[in-house]
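hey team, just a heads up i'm posting the complex here instead of the shared drive bc the drive is being weird again. everything in one block, sequence lines first with there labels, then the predicted structure for the whole assembly after. its four chains so it's a bit long, scroll down
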Amino acid sequence: MAEVKKAVLAYSGGLDTSVILKWLGDTYGCEVVTFTADIGQGEELDSVRPKAQALGVKEIFVDDLREEFVRDFVYPMFRANAIYEGEYLLGTSIARPLIAKRQVEIAAQTGADAIAHGATGKGNDQVRFELSAYALNPDIRVIAPWREWDLNSREKLLAYAEQHGIEIEKKKGGGSPYSMDANALHISYEGGVLEDPWTPAEDDMWRWTVPPEAAPDQAQEVDLTFERGDIVAVDGERLTPYEVLARLNRIAGAHGIGRIDIVENRYVGMKSRGCYETPGGTLMLKAHRAIESITLDREACHLKDELMPRYAKLIYNGYWFAPEREMLQAAIDASQTHVNGVVRLRLYKGSVSVVGRDSANDSLFDAAVATFEDDAGAYDQKDAEGFIRLNALRLRLGRRRR
Amino acid sequence: MAEVKKAVLAYSGGLDTSVILKWLGDTYGCEVVTFTADIGQGEELDSVRPKAQALGVKEIFVDDLREEFVRDFVYPMFRANAIYEGEYLLGTSIARPLIAKRQVEIAAQTGADAIAHGATGKGNDQVRFELSAYALNPDIRVIAPWREWDLNSREKLLAYAEQHGIEIEKKKGGGSPYSMDANALHISYEGGVLEDPWTPAEDDMWRWTVPPEAAPDQAQEVDLTFERGDIVAVDGERLTPYEVLARLNRIAGAHGIGRIDIVENRYVGMKSRGCYETPGGTLMLKAHRAIESITLDREACHLKDELMPRYAKLIYNGYWFAPEREMLQAAIDASQTHVNGVVRLRLYKGSVSVVGRDSANDSLFDAAVATFEDDAGAYDQKDAEGFIRLNALRLRLGRRRR
Amino acid sequence: MAEVKKAVLAYSGGLDTSVILKWLGDTYGCEVVTFTADIGQGEELDSVRPKAQALGVKEIFVDDLREEFVRDFVYPMFRANAIYEGEYLLGTSIARPLIAKRQVEIAAQTGADAIAHGATGKGNDQVRFELSAYALNPDIRVIAPWREWDLNSREKLLAYAEQHGIEIEKKKGGGSPYSMDANALHISYEGGVLEDPWTPAEDDMWRWTVPPEAAPDQAQEVDLTFERGDIVAVDGERLTPYEVLARLNRIAGAHGIGRIDIVENRYVGMKSRGCYETPGGTLMLKAHRAIESITLDREACHLKDELMPRYAKLIYNGYWFAPEREMLQAAIDASQTHVNGVVRLRLYKGSVSVVGRDSANDSLFDAAVATFEDDAGAYDQKDAEGFIRLNALRLRLGRRRR
Amino acid sequence: MAEVKKAVLAYSGGLDTSVILKWLGDTYGCEVVTFTADIGQGEELDSVRPKAQALGVKEIFVDDLREEFVRDFVYPMFRANAIYEGEYLLGTSIARPLIAKRQVEIAAQTGADAIAHGATGKGNDQVRFELSAYALNPDIRVIAPWREWDLNSREKLLAYAEQHGIEIEKKKGGGSPYSMDANALHISYEGGVLEDPWTPAEDDMWRWTVPPEAAPDQAQEVDLTFERGDIVAVDGERLTPYEVLARLNRIAGAHGIGRIDIVENRYVGMKSRGCYETPGGTLMLKAHRAIESITLDREACHLKDELMPRYAKLIYNGYWFAPEREMLQAAIDASQTHVNGVVRLRLYKGSVSVVGRDSANDSLFDAAVATFEDDAGAYDQKDAEGFIRLNALRLRLGRRRR
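-- predicted structure starts here --
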């Protein structure tokens, strides 16, 4: 095992990464730098610094990356209408590249030769962290303790913590039985009873959305304003990207919107059950499709639809910093110039529907052409005959042969 | 204009096709055969035959195609998880090829040299009818009166009807202001106030679903059983394809499920607003994705996802009987061998969610591998390191160059 | 028929367009502006102006578009490695958008309300001209005499010419029996004996390449230098885009390189036989793939390969000025930053092969990693085990089920 | 390391696999079964059995898989017109799944619990062998000595052989400096001077084809007859699949056809230089495209072209026995029903061209429609106007907006 001088650890302040912090020093004899990012997970980060200090860390980074996260990662992804396997809005996937990017930057800044993370060897997150890190610094050393050590249960972790004098806060209520992850876009749940795909999720598992049954009996409408494919205002109020998403999370969460419960295919080869709450993102996707429906050219729309599954898969698998993702992004972004306007959504007890869409200068909807009434010559119905006959020519020749 | 001896008219018994019936005889001097299909539109067809007789028709076909429609058209399409432009379940599109097919068969049977339909020159349906007809009989003559005559308003049609002694039933309540179409899969609404995409649909427009607000306060669960990708039972009761769809329409409609309101891109080049109710189909799609989530291989799933937009576009544009649709169908069908099992859905006030999925013999979900707990060696976490390192190799070489 | 004031005619000085010139004035009573482009077709254009003057034309445009053609149309297309139906390098297709663009510009400049062209109603060129024109000026009127008049044979054209005092030069040798088209990228042949796909092309048909049998007995090597995917030098000599292509046409033509003989699928629905000489383009494609082979990331390469058929089809069908072509171009161009270096080709009696490729700063070929010899730890063979095992996991789970 | 009882080794009789044979026994204490396949590599296999016996092997399999190889692997692949990265005909890739399949069968038959192969840890072949084996027997143990041992040079292998009494034939002329692989479809060369992509391949490296300069001065024509996409006769003589390929290898090799020299992207992440001779395959691909050009529907052809790169990549990467390959094969095979007829090729000094194609009953080429002469009404040129106008509509609406 090559020597490690200094490692930047993605540190949450919880049990796992506190144990890793200690274990890194013991195992590799290296100095540890901690890095904690605020990406909108909604947890208090004030206690992270004193905890790290108590464990002897000298270089401690606690960064607010919320705006960068939504502006440079979430927004570009939503321009693509990205959904993985028909259901999943990629809430965890999209955060990993940013964390790895900052971790690699801190390594450069602090002269560290390694980074470390607390993701397990079974999941997608290890892949996303490491592909991102390698893509940004091909010589970085990556340490993934879960793939190396034998502390493969909560009991062993607790024993190690006690043995090494790591103070662990008792979580209120005894902690969640689920493996959870949160950021400004979503919160996820895995493990526990979810490991049987026939067993329903428990009602009290969900944290960001009320049950649809508990949502208001009155529907609410919300107007979203788009510029070049991105939401810039909610109900007419101009907001930053993070503010938009935070606002939409609150609004949609209150109406019980954005829960999904799926079995997904992990990049490492297995199927796994996951439950996700993406309240704001659910509104964003619905509204983005709707504004595109009046401002985007048909074939541009269809090309985007055909490219999307591949784009979503790239993000799911951890290839954000790969040239093929950048190529697809270039194509997607090139389509968004005219995606400007307002969409009105209606939220009610778990579902969201589009009730209006408008674009002052960029609409391609031409009522004069589309009308069922007399169109005053805007469209010559006789053109359709030639259109059909030439499109049919190959089919007719094909049938004659049979 | 080449002579026409006999034409098979797709006849509904309503104003438009009654006028066409008369107009065909007057304009082409041809005999007219009428053909009316029951494809689950839910209208009484008993009066069609006497109406046609009253207009002097000698050869009258009224066919029940409901099972054929669902079994041979709707079901294969749902195996593909087909959605057009992210929203539309292709309810109208999928019915047209069947009608054209039967029309061409009747032409052969009755010695007719032409078929006629009542679709306008602005819409997709003319294309779907005619591409299907030409693909099945390359020498058939197609007559599309709306592209030929000058009866381009309801007033002119009524005048023509009166002038030619065509009796028109007054619709109750004065008729709908919308252009509507229905079959076992859906009912559609276009025109009227919908021609402004900012104007919401009127509450009393919808016919097959209750408003979510009026749906029961109690959620309902329903179990769908799949065999080779097709639903064969509802809540354990074995049903024919049409029975399945009819049952699901009732169940989902009662919970306000399946409404959409979109602007779509027509094949003839314009955007148009459409509202659709597809209650049963909405459940079918959700459940099919869910049963695939545990029984379909990851890459088979992803290939299906990438092919789907093109497949959906082919159906939307009218290419059901085209070799490229048949090629895609062969690929899709080849993936469904193991898509067997049960999905439990939960319906509540306009939305549907998956609460369980199970497959006795075909599940690829392996809890032993996926577990967050000790997996007793089912998966070696160390494998992940090599997996990531080789996937990262090209990215690292790429970065070194920069 | 709406009135036409002034039409810009794409004028070659030959029989067809001279007749059209006259016919336009007679039929539409409009003034005619002529436009003739030098796009490298290799014909003398000096006589075009006097001919047009002799026919009474007042506004005559003869433009040298050779550099614009190669720089802005041919080069971007070759970045995509575009080939239609596995064989055709799109020589005719890529020239049409430029001609239409200039024609629309001249219309704006001269106050013309229409453009006219001499393409027939059966071919692809009418589509390419008109889609381009409409995309650039949605209100332009297009006149396609071949779809309107009854002069549907050479005899009728000659009679019309004589009758209207149009002087026609006798072509040396009685003219070609083929329908031909040429520009800097290629020359094409259709019609005549080629209308039977079993009949070989005649030896004396080909004009730009010697027969392979007549090529030198000595192979020749040529070095092509690339910058960002474009060729900027030949054998070390820096050249403009048009100069590059002209030089390569001469070199490759002398070695009998670049002939193809195919049956292709036209956009209007029929199959047609075409023979093409694309000597320079054949070298460009081969060399571009070779320089990409050492400088382009694997997945970027594969994404380009998957997008290429669609991109080629768009160009073939006339959609150069469509948003979906621009999206694909954005993706393709985004991949070319590092496509820099030199490729050495070997030309011999009709075939071209790659004998070397090098890139001083942008090669991704890492001999230290790739070597069959000891690689001093550049690559850890043990990584392959985990790589394979995780890629195999889903296949193993799939087989267990069966 | 779990115990191994018996291993089936893919055995060639050469140095490497003889050492592996011994090493397996020594390292794992297991019995070894040898398996040698004749897949048309053109080597004498008579000496394999005595060699294995001399090394103490009791169960020895030498199987003639030539017909199965061409019929069930090569032919289906050529239906797809498969080319990897624009150049490579997948000669090595397509043989590996068959070898693995037979190896797994022999394991079942002999009660072996492992298979072993002599592929290195850097290449694609290990992946192809192992993915195929795992896909067919998820519980098989795979032993890849090159990834385990430290015999990482020819010298160490020779020393080991001497030390363990393994007799090694001296290759005539001292052996090739290249790493080579051959089967009925191709022979490949890697390593040696090829490890510098600027260095040309040496003239005396190539074994199956004469240099184009040494090919006959007279061109040769050859007729290939297709049934459902497969070649069934050469110059009118009906042959089995293997006989076809062997015959075409001889014919094309004599004309110097089928050499390529490329840098390719390996699945394990690096670029590598490879030279390949695929004489017969080069004819097969050219001819298959030509017969499809007159018998395959346009959109079926284009769909195949778009799916091809992905299909080729699957085979290159070793996913022959994966469900997504089977799905694509189903689509491809569904397109080949009418791919019947004859193609005439012309071979001359390294290049092959198509000079004729004909299909008695399945041609879609309709001279009456395609002709430049009067078509007697087979095609109405006026149809083109409507076709173009409706295809242009979205472009015109798009431009109006700008």
